[in-house]
């Protein structure tokens, strides 16, 4: 029996579970921000003096919405943290490849850091901490995607000769997407009285990067058509679909958050709202904003996975 076939499938199974659970965690976290429920529970790590897991479930389920979503976010985060611990233990006990073990270690470190950032944001009421929390969440999700791909028992066997050109463009798409996500976190957590000039530059940069990302993802998709790796082609196709959906959701988020652009209002004076004046958010607007954040995290995770596969194949081809 070779070392390849002797690898246990359990690290990969737990890695998949960790990644799958992290996506709804990102979505719920974004919903907490979209509905302004982040400070619904004033203490941490407990909930109104109770142990997190012993808080009365009737009060949680039938209480105010902001309490329901914030406490639920904490419970889901705790579950993800527990799965991260189990994943690392399984990787160590089954003697998974060293790279997989270190990815599992990184996942645990990131989820702990994310939990501490979220807790300190509540305790200190600090917006910069909220921004950092919003930046680290998608990074953790992308990391779990890397763990998913790398822990596959067929990782080395699936290697196909590739090119560094595709690998570089895929990595570029991943990097720019993360910068875009961090800028989005800044815009979502910006103080109530930002400098109009600085805020305007941030919005313009965000819009510009959206166009750049669509172009990069399109290029990755085109280059991947000739890639021998079926998995890479499939991920690149998924990236293209998500990027298209993200661009559409971005337009919807703009309309939800800042109403209609000035040139539209000039053409139709009866329409209300203006750029820079945040519109009151209802359920539809909140869900659009939340989906936009979650979609960005999904695009980052896909591009990270694609970059990992592309670099593996490029090294195999040289």
Automatic annotation (TrEMBL):
Alphabetized UniProt keyword annotations: Cell membrane, Disulfide bond, Heme biosynthesis, Iron, Membrane, Metal-binding, Oxidoreductase, Transmembrane, Transmembrane helix
Compartment annotation: Membrane
Entry GO MF terms: metal ion binding; oxidoreductase activity
Pathway as given in its UniProt record: Porphyrin-containing compound metabolism
Coiled coil region boundaries: none
Entry superkingdom: Bacteria
GO CC terms, sorted: membrane
Stored InterPro entries: COX15/CtaA_fam, COX15/CtaA_HemeA_synthase
Annotated GO biological process: heme A biosynthetic process
Topology of the protein relative to the lipid bilayer: Multi-pass membrane protein
Residue spans crossing the bilayer: 75-92, 99-117, 129-149, 169-187, 199-223, 235-256, 288-311
Major subcellular site: membrane
This protein's name: Heme A synthase
Annotated source species: Pirellulimonas nuda
């Amino acid at each position: 029996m070779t070392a390849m076939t002797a690898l246990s499938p359990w690290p990969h199974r737990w890695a998949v579970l960790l990644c799958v659970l992290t996506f709804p965690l990102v979505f719920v976290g974004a919903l907490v921000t979209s509905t302004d429920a982040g400070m619904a529970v004033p203490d941490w790590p407990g909930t109104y003096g109770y142990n997190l897991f012993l808080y009365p479930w009737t009060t949680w389920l039938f209480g105010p919405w902001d309490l329901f979503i914030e406490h639920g976010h904490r419970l889901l985060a705790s579950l993800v943290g527990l799965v991260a611990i189990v994943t690392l233990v399984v990787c160590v006990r089954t003697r998974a490849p060293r790279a997989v073990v270190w990815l599992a270690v990184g996942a645990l470190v990131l989820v702990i850091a994310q939990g501490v950032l979220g807790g300190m944001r509540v305790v200190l009421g600090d917006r910069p901490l909220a921004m950092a929390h919003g930046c680290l969440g998608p990074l953790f999700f992308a990391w779990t995607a890397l763990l998913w791909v790398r822990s596959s028992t067929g990782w080395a066997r699936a290697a196909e000769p590739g090119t560094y050109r595709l690998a570089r463009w895929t990595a570029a798409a991943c990097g720019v997407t993360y910068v875009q996500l961090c800028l989005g976190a800044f815009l979502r957590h910006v103080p109530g009285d930002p400098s109009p000039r600085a805020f305007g530059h941030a919005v313009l940069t965000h819009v510009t990067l959206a166009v750049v990302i669509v172009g990069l993802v399109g290029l990755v998709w085109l280059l991947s058509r000739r890639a021998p790796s079926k998995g890479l082609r499939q991920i690149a196709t998924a990236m293209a679909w998500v990027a298209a959906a993200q661009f559409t959701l971005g337009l919807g988020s703009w309309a939800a958050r800042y109403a209609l652009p000035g040139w539209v209002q000039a053409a139709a004076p009866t329409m209300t709202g203006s750029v820079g004046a945040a519109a009151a958010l209802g359920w539809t607007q909140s869900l659009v904003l939340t989906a936009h954040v979650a979609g960005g995290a999904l695009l980052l995770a896909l591009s990270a996975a694609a970059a990992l596969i592309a670099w593996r194949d490029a090294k195999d081809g040289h």
